[in-house]
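Tokens for Sulfotransferase. Go.
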Amino acid sequence: MTMEHRKKQVGVEGLNVSYSNWFAKHFLRSTFENQWVIPEPLPRAVASFLRWYEKRCMRIDLTDIPIDKPIFIISLPRCGSSMLQDILCTHPKLAYTTNIMDICRSAPCAADHLRRKFGLNISGERFLKDSVIVDGGTPADPVATWADLFGEDYFEISDRQPDIDHLNTERREAIKTTIRQAIWCHGSAGRRFFCKTPMLLPYLGVLNALFPDAKFIHLIRDPRQGANSMRKVYRISNERLKEIRSRQGRPLPEEPFIPYPRLPRIKEYLERYGADDIRTTASLWNEAIDVVDRYRPDVRHLLEVRYEDILENPAGKMAELFAFCELEAPAKDNLAYQEKLQGIGVVHHKNRYQDFGTITEICREKMLRYSYRPD
């Protein structure tokens, strides 16, 4: 039973939420109501069942699944990467980590298989309240998946920079297995893996070393909007965490959650300015470009795209992106693609941004480099 066959509207913190059926509501409601950067763990019994089902009841052979020219969006948060991901993932040749797979990381194939088989789904606006609609089958921002793969504690602020030489064989194989699982879930044949999560920005060099034929899309946004929006995410993420922990009767972490990629000087900026200071996010905007520049000579396939250019010329920029990725443009009868293309720039929330002068002072040089007028 699919979302189209049966829907039930339930209010969750002011949002309209659609459940595909009673079972979806029963098993997934808590997951959606408590959605956050890191998905809440499944009940132990459910997680154990999924692992058993995947091991005993499914025939999953990953040995002959190639990882051919995987595609990664490299960007800061709030650069339009979710919008771009949703459009690209309408392509029939792409495979990706779905939200249900990011939630059920110990048995992603079983979770996605059962979601499809029994129509277990839930749909609604994500907790950032930024007009992005998500459900169990939509592409995830798989922070949890990649934090597990790289052994990151995302409540910890570390300035230790990723290095391929520090990534042991077990972790390298786990990354490749995770990618093959995503490809398997999407039907395997001829599929290319796609991923976007801003946490991968510091890992550009590692990903390039693991996958020399990978396609990297460096997505950039005007820092006056980007830095403001990043600060907004910091506030919303911590307000949301407080709500969830209060409902669950659990204490908050000792330190606020920092939803920014772990760039080399992040600890310095946090100590100097604080997490809720526009100078921190503006400085990270600068440093994100420095990180890409550091690895640029070694990356064979890197395309830089401005978010604003996609808004101005959606069809033209998407054609350029598909060509870069060595993918045929979606057919005219690909209704999902056409709908997403028409929806570019259409939002239902309002932003009130400020501190443009401070941001411009910090970012002026690189703004000019990317043709952002400082005045």
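Residues 223-248 form the longest helix (26 residues).
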